Amino acid sequence: MGGITILLSNKRSDSGRAKYELVHVVRTNHAANDEAYRCAYQEEDVEGNIVISLSKNLTAIAGAALKENITTIAPLVLPPSELLRWALGCIMKKTYTPDFRKAFKHFCIHAGGRAVIEELSKKLKLMEERVEPSRMTLHRLGNTSSSSPWYELSYVEAKGRMKKGDRVWKIRLGSGLEVGLNATT
């Protein structure tokens, strides 16, 4: 489970049939960093079983990669008022977390586990309705890896919450450590 196929096209003739338009893609891969590479790693244990080892540094490494990724996508998606607040925070050396709810209507957060969803929803100050698709995907399908945002998007559609012009932020995490953010309309 977890595999998903999406038909993508760059032909102008297909644009009329498309449900969504991919506006921005930001991808960060830290696999060259040994600590990041080993934070989620498949290996053989002493009994010969194939296991997934998760480093105790996983959340710190994922957080750093996600922060780098968000810093890259923020100027592309945030409204001017949030960009100004963010810039002032940087100048004054104060931490300001932009309100991405002003940029996106829907959030599809990687359903890698309850802790991932909780932490991202807390950091992004998202209300329960905004993280419900992620929670339900995790509940119904488990960790479907980086394809979970597509299942979450399907959940939003099935609930009738998706409207024409709504912006969606798909946040994916993968081993290596890889972070992908997509902004879709």
UniProtKB/TrEMBL annotation:
Its EC number is 2.3.1.199. Keywords: Acyltransferase, Transferase. One of its GO terms (molecular function) is fatty acid elongase activity. Residues 104-180 form the Beta-ketoacyl-[acyl-carrier-protein] synthase III C-terminal domain. SUPFAM superfamilies: Thiolase-like. GO terms for cellular component: membrane. Residues 1-94 form the FAE domain. Gene3D superfamilies: 3.40.47.10. Pfam families: ACP_syn_III_C (PF08541), FAE1_CUT1_RppA (PF08392). GO terms for biological process: fatty acid biosynthetic process. Belongs to the thiolase-like superfamily. Chalcone/stilbene synthases family. This is very-long-chain 3-oxoacyl-CoA synthase. It comes from Asparagus officinalis (Garden asparagus). The lineage of its organism: Eukaryota, Viridiplantae, Streptophyta, Embryophyta, Tracheophyta.
